[in-house]
Amino acid sequence: MIVYNLGCTNEHRFEGWFASAEEFERQTSAKQLSCPLCGSDRVSRLPHAPHVSTGSAERNGEGAGQPSKGVPRQYANLGAELLAHLIDKVVETTVDVGRAFPEEARKIHYKEAPERHIRGSASAKEVDALRDEGIEVVALPIPPHRLSRTH
Ligand SMILES: [Zn+2]
């Protein structure tokens, strides 16, 4: 299971989730990928995103229920089962920093903290701010009960 940061020719950024790198290549060459913002099918891969925002703060905080232009999502290419596998993978391979997520992501970006993959919660506004600084963040809808798993 792979998450790629993707971008279109209009410089929109979004994420695409794929069962494998081969699946990504296949969908790309078949022009099955399109930008969720403008519909362009000229989509290419951007550097991999190390940080995962679970978006859980977003649900409680301001702006809940409003569409957020900063965190476009493309989940349509994944079924529920694949999504569950992806979430397992993320929980296994990242360190949970909770609400310290924006701060930790910044520290790692500016090399004030050791390079590692982290996950945690951030509001849509915080995710936007991180992206403005060039910090790659993947927004992932991880259900709260999955986050409590320590392994
Ligand atoms: Zn676009």
Helix-strand blueprint:
Blueprint: E1 2-8, E2 13-18, H1 21-29, E3 43-46, E4 51-53, H2 56-60, E5 73-74, H3 80-93, E6 95-98, H4 101-109, E7 118-120, H5 124-132, E8 137-139, H6 144-147
Parallel strand pairs: 2-5, 4-7, 4-8, 6-7
Antiparallel strand pairs: 1-2, 1-3
The structure holds zinc ion (ZN).
Summarize the main sheet.
Answer: 4 strands, mixed
Strand order of the largest sheet: 3-1-2-5
Bound molecules: zinc ion
The proportion of residues forming helix, as a percent range, comes to: 25-40%
Question: What is the total tally of β strands?
Answer: 8
* Multimeric state: single chain
Q: What's the helix count?
A: 6
Report how far the terminal alpha carbons are from each other: 18 Å
**What's the mean pLDDT score?**
76
Q: How many whole angstroms does the radius of gyration measure?
A: 15 Å
Strand content: 15-25%
Q: How many structural domains can be distinguished in the coordinates?
A: 1
List the helices and strands in order. Answer: EEHEEHEHEHEHEH
Low-confidence stretches: 57-72
By secondary-structure content and strand pairing, the structural class works out as alpha/beta
> Which term fits the overall shape?
globular
